[in-house]
Specification:
The chain is mainly alpha-helical and 692 residues long.
Length: 692
């Protein structure tokens, strides 16, 4: 099975199991069971009733509430531990009134107040599926861990008497059939209000629909399990909403938190007609004055601060200039810009944009802090089979996270965003138990610390030249490459050719030159061999800035020191490359950033976002990355990015064989020549995998 197939099997395994169970249902009931399966998916039963790595619908998933921890129950048709002995009347009572077969009350974390609005036919179809289309699993339910007095269920009868409205949905006469279909899905099976409607003192949803005196509160936003579920009222266009629910992303952003499971297990399987109906209904709800906004027409204009003369050329006009003059800006540039880009545009269909991003619009920063500390994962859907991750940044300090988030909110969120305090980050960190995992002694240098140095302007210029090399030095770069294309995060990532300690090792012997070379010559080697360009004058301000930046990274390193994380590591050269398999791996893991055929990707303005791996704009034949095993060593530890949740880029994760295979494929794509290659290795020692 290739990588893409593996990811698909992992991502939608529960749905595949459910489908196979459906196929085993009796012929007479097949249509009913099939309709019931669709209803179960709309209701997102599998997301709550399946524990991590557990069997579908067998329960055991922990659900955090303000009153303690609930564990979802086994709802497979097992007669001993599940619902196999439920009559339809008992099933209907549990779904509409929250009362189990044996008479005990269910906690309203099970959204029976929403399911109560289901039609009688949908309830019967769902019952048929749950008893005949789901594979029975014998698995005892876990005991809940609820605080007293909430552990005493008798109070739930009073709660139901006061708050439960178990009347089925009634279509609104003066609205269209499409609108009513969307309203029915949202209010009943979709149970959108369970997360997005404000709750009262008894944890009740303040309203169950948009009708009545409290209708303006419906879907106006709430905080759930540390995530800010923002207002869904007057939401986007119906088409944008349908795309988000189908794929987990649209031009406005991507889902996060609990919505990842909703898309992955539920809404991606809904018909386009139903998704559009949901979009039509949500768009029709007028925004209220107390909404937690999901979207704003336009974020604030970038905060433009003039650069000092020594900072070099001005950035593109859509980049906040204070990205180079503030700690938060430099922190963002180092840890966020690889995915979200310096201008906040993100990468179409890959990483979400920040301009107008709904999470940045909220005055409550709970979701932002949560994501920074614990990371994020996109849902696996039919259209996006590879899950993309945002790493957890708990490795950063509370003050650093606050600085980055404050810069981001004020640049692309809202100009009146209140200050996020380090103490807030610390409080959320403690609540989530989020700790930085330091698996190695490599200390990631912080670009923000350059601002404390006497030569800060020169150091910032050196960092910018590394990040934005092709644009700032067009006379010396003949490709679409920047130094940071290989030296990730401006040369601060372990095993990504970090600059820590580099300058301490120069002058040193260069095998390809056959003599001792200086740091300036090594830098120019990159311009000529990797970037298909020309040497930078040694006395230029730009060269001095780059050397100063390297020296700053050196700190106290001495030539004899063994520097943790320096270089890109090694890979076993006895591995036999399989470029055909490499192309399959590339398609599954790399093409999303580097193009289907390694041609790179550009933004709407035609500017390079991620560089090509072949063709006239790629690194040339003289680059180390044009050699199979050098490229494989780099790929193994640094590519693909967003592959998992580890600091700082979620990078690396392919096996040695996969890394060698994919390197064999892309390293031998057509690329620019390097004419002076005839003078290389004058004293021997030419690598066996050299391209020339």
């Amino acid at each position: 099975m290739n990588t893409r197939a593996i990811l698909r099997a992992v991502g939608i395994g529960c749905s595949l199991l459910l489908a196979s169970a459906t196929a085993s249902a009796g012929t007479a009931q097949a249509d009913v069971v099939r309709r019931g399966e669709y209803i179960a998916r709309m209701g997102d039963c599998v997301a709550c009733h399946t524990a991590p790595d557990g069997k579908p619908m067998a329960g055991g998933r922990a659900l955090e509430t303000p009153f303690g921890i609930l564990y979802s129950t086994n709802i497979t048709p097992d007669g001993k531990t599940g619902i196999g002995r439920y009559t339809f009347e008992q099933f209907d009572r549990a779904m509409r009134k929250g009362v189990a077969a044996d008479g005990h009350n269910l906690y309203p974390a099970m959204p029976y107040p929403s399911y109560a609005r289901m039609t009688a036919q949908d309830m019967r179809d769902l019952y048929a599926y749950m008893l005949n289309g789901v594979e029975p699993v014998e698995q005892a339910n876990k005991e809940n861990d609820m605080d007293w007095p909430f552990s005493m269920r008798w109070g739930l009868s009073l709660w139901n008497a006061v708050f439960l409205d178990d009347e089925a949905f009634e279509p609104v006469a003066n609205e269209s059939e499409q609108w009513n279909r969307g309203a029915y899905i949202v209010q009943s099976l979709g149970h959108c209000g369970a997360c997005h409607t404000p709750r009262g003192f008894a944890f009740q949803e303040k309203t169950m629909s948009d009708q009545g005196g409290k209708g303006a509160m419906f879907l106006a936003g709430e905080t759930v399990e540390g995530w800010r579920a923002l207002s869904l009222r007057n939401l986007w266009t119906p088409e944008d909403t349908a795309e988000m629910l189908k794929t987990g992303r649209n031009k406005h952003g991507t889902v996060s938190g609990n919505m990842v499971d909703v898309v992955q297990h539920s809404t991606q399987y809904m018909t386009d007609e139903d998704l559009l109906a949901v979009g039509v209904y949500l768009k029709s709800l007028p925004a209220g004055k107390d909404d937690l906004p999901m979207q704003v027409a336009q974020g604030p204009a970038p905060n433009i601060v003039p650069l000092s003369a020594g900072m070099g050329a001005a950035p593109d006009d859509d980049v906040p200039t204070n990205i180079f003059t503030t700690r938060g800006g430099l922190g963002y540039l180092q840890f966020c810009a690889d995915c979200h880009r310096a201008n906040g545009d993100g990468v179409p269909n890959v990483f979400p944009p920040l301009t107008g991003n709904h999470t940045l619009q909220s005055q409550d920063p709970a979701t932002l802090i949560h994501i920074m500390l614990t990371g994020w994962r996109a849902p696996v859907t039919e259209s996006h089979a590879r899950p993309l991750y945002m790493p957890a940044f708990a490795q950063l300090g509370d003050e650093e996270i606050a600085e980055i988030l404050n810069f981001t909110r004020r640049s692309w969120g809202r100009s009146d965003a209140r200050e996020i305090l380090a103490s807030e980050v610390g409080s959320v960190r403690k609540h989530l138990g989020a700790k930085g995992i330091d698996e190695r002694p490599f200390e990631t240098p912080r670009l923000a610390d350059m601002l404390k140095e006497a030569n800060a302007e020169q150091l910032v210029l050196g960092a910018r030249l590394n990040i934005d090399t092709a644009r700032m030095l067009p006379d010396h770069v003949g490709a679409a490459m920047n130094c940071a294309s290989c030296h990730l995060n401006a040369g601060t990532v372990a095993d990504g050719s970090p600059y820590v300690g580099v300058s301490a090792f120069f002058p040193s012997y260069g095998a390809r030159a056959g003599r001792e070379i200086t740091l300036e010559e090594r830098i120019n080697g990159c311009f000529q061999r990797s970037m298909n360009g020309k040497a930078l004058p040694k006395e230029s301000d730009e060269m001095k800035a780059m050397v100063a930046y390297f020296d700053w990274m050196k700190r106290e390193t001495k030539p004899e020191d063994r520097v943790e994380g320096r270089g890109i590591g090694k890979i076993d050269r006895s591995i036999v490359p399989d470029p055909d398999n490499g192309k399959l791996i590339y398609a599954a893991q790399c093409a999303v950033c580097h193009g289907d055929e390694g041609e790179g990707i550009k933004d709407a303005r035609g500017r390079w976002v991620y560089p090509p791996l072949g063709g006239e704009h790629s690194f040339n034949i003289g680059a180390g990355m044009a050699r199979i095993y050098t490229a494989a060593a780099f790929v193994k530890r640094n590519m693909p990015i967003a592959f998992h949740g580890s600091f700082p880029l979620g990078q690396g994760g392919l096996s040695d064989q996969e890394a060698v295979d994919v390197a064999a494929w892309f390293s031998h794509l057509p690329r620019p020549d390097f004419a002076p290659k005839v003078n290389d290795w004058p004293k021997g020692g030419k690598p066996s995998d050299a391209r020339y």
